[in-house]
């Protein structure tokens, strides 16, 4: 399948998505680069201090010029905004603060006119508790929509204890008692986000209708929110004990229980296949599904189906926890290559709207950020870039008590002396910290908005860390991303080649090296994670240096190459 020319998204006609299985050209989504826009924080078009769709449309030229090929938009649907859009009240409408349905259509057209693609966020697992379905469902035990959500009687005596021991994703019981009907409803995340009951065929039909609707509006793909929680076990039996105190990126068990009946249910894998059939049946160019799921790469590949007939992609969040060290990065790439070998296709994710910004993990070090970008944009897989990552936008500490994020509110009881060290090890309980407005320039609010006050403040270093300033500096993180995105687009080996790790056990431990192989030319990528210079053999002398994170790198390499601290290079073969 690899070793074949890629078709640029703009030139994509309506091709049968199954062609990949016949060894034809890979579909566009396998070689694309994705940029996540958090609409509330990206660009404010109407000066109310909140980002919106017209604001985003005004910045599309920036994104096209940056060279990203696909945008993923966090939810913009009608919502009480208790979880900033991940609590949907009307799946077919657009939140007034973000714009209108017309703005969505205009956005789709404008994105497509630039030869780019767009992915929408689908929150299938739950709705807002203000959704009319839930209002109806909670009204009485005999409501025709009662069974659209998961209601259960409590345990005796008096039904005042939750129906079983299931924990929500944030810890604590996920059951919520409703005084009116004296029953409990289940919510995998927060209490105002009740889970839908996918065992009810009407629910399934309605939600598949939502999926179909947005694909028909023009979405080229869908990102599926906490997809791993969709089906719960019908037995409602207690989850078994586990010794794990907290869930992690590669294991959803935690809070002292195995998530046996609540996460990764076999029926969810089957549903992934059903969704795939639906998505593949929509006329026009192929679309893709990417699942937000948590677990080891081996566990997660089950979502992609045994015959590559499930979700097209899943987020691999192990990347978020990988130490900035050669051996750790090599082991990560090795594992991803092993578990997501062809025909599966991996993803490389270093940040999103839920996690501390990647540069924070890297000690706010621009050199390290450039090296990680080089890894992300040269490894085999689809890179997901979180807005602001391309300028090294920093994480900003905001005390839990000032958090707008409902997760911050949930953990407000955690004292600062505990929150602080947790933050240091990469656990932030206030997601506002990674959602600050995009810094466009050094003007008021970093150019994000003309309002007096914005929903979150501009990050404190916006006068120097912003798009305009980095555009002027050829050595900036922004230019590094631009150069990488350009070379990835132009080089078949980088966007469609296979990957072979080089120098197993030989060579300096802090250098990760791999070859991207393609019939139209192969390249070698060398990444130096050491704090100092390292000399590596590169075979034949005179190989062209196609890229270096360091703008003053020589145009050609000798038989050996001196890589400076945090330098990453791409060499022609
Ligand atoms: C995961 C989303 O990324 C997060 O932002 C949201 O709060 C939860 N799912 C609940 O929808």
What does this structure look like?
With 573 residues, this protein is an alpha/beta fold. Among the domains are: 27-129 and 198-391 and 461-477, Glycosidases (TIM Barrel), CATH 3.20.20.80; 132-186, Oligo-1,6-glucosidase, domain 2 (Alpha-Beta Complex). The protein has 17 helices and 21 strands. It has helices at 28-31, 39-42, 53-58, 60-66, 101-113, 132-139, 201-217, 266-281, 297-300, 326-339, 358-361, 366-378, 406-410, 416-424, 467-472, 477-490, 492-496, and strands at residues 34-37, 70-73, 77-78, 90-94, 117-122, 151-152, 175-178, 183-186, 221-224, 288-291, 313-314, 347-349, 382-386, 498-501, 511-517, 523-528, 534-537, 543-548, 556-557, 560-563, 568-572. The strands form five sheets. Strands 11-10-9-5-2-1-13-12 form an eight-stranded parallel β-sheet. It has a six-stranded antiparallel β-sheet with strand order 14-15-16-21-18-19. A hairpin with a 4-residue loop joins strand 7 (175-178) and strand 8. The radius of gyration is 24 Å and the shape is globular. The two termini are 21 Å apart. The model is unreliable at 1-23 (pLDDT under 50). 1-deoxynojirimycin (NOJ) binds at residues 83, 86, 123, 189, 225-226, 292, 353-354.
């Amino acid at each position: 399948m690899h070793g074949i020319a890629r078709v640029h998204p703009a030139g994509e006609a309506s091709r049968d998505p199954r062609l990949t299985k016949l060894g034809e050209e890979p579909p566009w989504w396998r070689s694309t680069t994705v940029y996540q826009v958090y609409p509330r924080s990206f660009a404010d078009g109407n000066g109310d201090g909140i980002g919106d769709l017209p604001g985003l449309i005004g910045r599309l030229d920036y994104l096209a010029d940056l060279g990203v090929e696909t945008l993923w938009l966090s939810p913009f649907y009608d919502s009480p905004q208790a979880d900033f859009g991940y609590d949907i009240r009307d799946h077919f409408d657009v939140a007034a603060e973000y714009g209108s349905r017309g703005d969505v259509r205009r956005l789709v057209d404008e994105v497509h006119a630039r030869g780019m693609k767009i992915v929408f966020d689908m929150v299938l697992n739950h709705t807002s508790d203000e959704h009319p379905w839930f209002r109806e469902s909670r009204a009485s035990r005999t409501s025709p929509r009662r069974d659209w959500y998961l209601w259960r009687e409590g345990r005796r005596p008096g039904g005042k204890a939750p129906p079983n021991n299931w924990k929500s994703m944030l810890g604590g019981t996920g059951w919520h008692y409703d005084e009116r009907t004296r029953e409990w409803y289940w919510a995998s995340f927060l209490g105002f986000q009740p889970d839908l009951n996918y065992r009810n065929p009407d629910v399934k039909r309605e939600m598949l209708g939502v999926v179909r609707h947005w694909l028909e509006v023009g979405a080229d793909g869908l990102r599926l929110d906490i997809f791993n929680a969709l089906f719960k076990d019908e037995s409602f039996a207690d989850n078994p004990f586990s010794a794990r105190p907290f869930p992690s990126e590669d294991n959803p068990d935690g809070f002292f229980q195995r998530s046996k009946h609540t996460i990764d249910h076999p029926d969810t894998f089957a549903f992934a296949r059903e969704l795939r059939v639906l998505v593949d049946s929509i006329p026009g160019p192929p679309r893709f599904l990417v699942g937000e799921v948590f677990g080891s790469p081996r566990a997660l590949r089950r979502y992609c189906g045994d015959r590559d007939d499930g979700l097209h992609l899943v987020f691999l969040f192990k990347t978020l926890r990988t130490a900035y060290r050669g051996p750790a990065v090599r082991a990560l790439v090795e594992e991803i290559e092993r578990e997501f070998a062809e025909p599966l296709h991996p993803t490389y994710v270093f940040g999103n709207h839920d996690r501390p910004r990647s540069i924070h993990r890297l000690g706010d070090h621009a050199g390290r950020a450039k090296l990680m970008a080089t890894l992300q944009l040269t490894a085999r897989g689809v890179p997901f870039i979180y807005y602001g990552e391309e300028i090294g936008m920093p994480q900003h500490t905001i005390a839990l008590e000032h958090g707008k994020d409902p997760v911050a509110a949930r953990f407000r009881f955690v004292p600062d002396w505990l929150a602080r060290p947790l933050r240091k090890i990469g656990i932030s309980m206030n997601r506002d910290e990674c959602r600050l407005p995009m810094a466009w320039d050094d003007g008021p609010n970093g150019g994000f908005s003309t309002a007096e006050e914005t929903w979150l403040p501009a990050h404190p270093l916006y006068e120097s860390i912003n798009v305009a300033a980095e555009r002027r500096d050829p050595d900036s993180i922004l230019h590094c991303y631009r150069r990488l995105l350009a070379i990835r687009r132009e080089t078949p080996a980088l966007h469609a080649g296979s990957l072979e790790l080089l120098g197993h056990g030989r060579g300096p431990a802090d250098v990760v090296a791999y070859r991207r192989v393609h019939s139209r030319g192969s390249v070698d990528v060398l990444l130096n994670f050491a704090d100092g210079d390292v000399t590596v053999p590169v075979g034949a002398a005179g190989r062209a240096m196609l890229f270096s994170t360091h703008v003053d790198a020589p145009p050609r390499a000798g038989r050996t190459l001196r890589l400076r601290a945090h330098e990453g290079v791409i060499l022609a073969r």
